[in-house]
Amino acid sequence: MTVTIRRAERRDREALGRLGAMLMRTHYAFDPQRFLSPGESAESGYGAFLGSVLESPEACVFVAEISGEVAGYVYAALEPLSWKELRGPAGFIHDIVVQPGAQRGGVATLLMNAATDWLREHGAPRVILWTASRNDVAQRLFRKAGFRDTMVEMTMELDPQLQGRSR
Asked: Model confidence over 54-111: pLDDT tens digits?
């Protein structure tokens, strides 16, 4: 399997939307109280969102192509100092997703390396990412790449009708 990693282009918006919606569905299945419901317009909405950052000097979106088809993408951005997060400037990997038929073939690692290289070239002193607590596969990938645990997000529902309802 030959994988080509390249910067995403406007022509990739439909594929980006499809993959972004898949990412939304995965996270929603992990915890529907915490994550946005994908809804009926997830593909077009996510495609438009990622399309809006393609030209940003502060962000990058790379796609992985296999046999001319987009099989995955990574979205990363430079983030300034954040007093509320108690951290200095950093690169942030916001999304990384690979379609099921291409998983476990090194595609995610290639995408992560492309994003990390771009962040390094653009002056990021570190790279941060979040992963769903139930996403063991992603966590193994990130640890293998050299990421370490630094924070744990915790959520409490304030709506009494939602309290106690689990995934």
From this structure: 999 999 999 999 999 999 999 999 999 999 999 999 999 999 999 999 999 899 999 9
Do 147 and 111 meet the contact criterion of CB atoms below 8 Å apart? no
Domains with residue ranges and CATH for the chain: 3-144 (3.40.630.30)
Distance CA 118, CA 53 (A): 15
- The token pair at 146 is 């050299």
56-73 burial, b for 16+ CB within 10 Å, e for fewer? eeebbbbbbbbeeebbbb
pLDDT of residue 80: 97
Compute the residue count for the chain: 167
What would the DSSP string read from start to end of 121-149?
HTT-S-EEE---TT-HHHHHHHHHTT---
Degrees, nearest 5: CA angle 65-140-81: 85
Q: Which two tokens stand for residue 16?
A: 């980006």
Buried b (16+ CB within 10 A) or exposed e, 94-111: bbbbbbeebeebebbebb
Mean pLDDT of the chain: 94
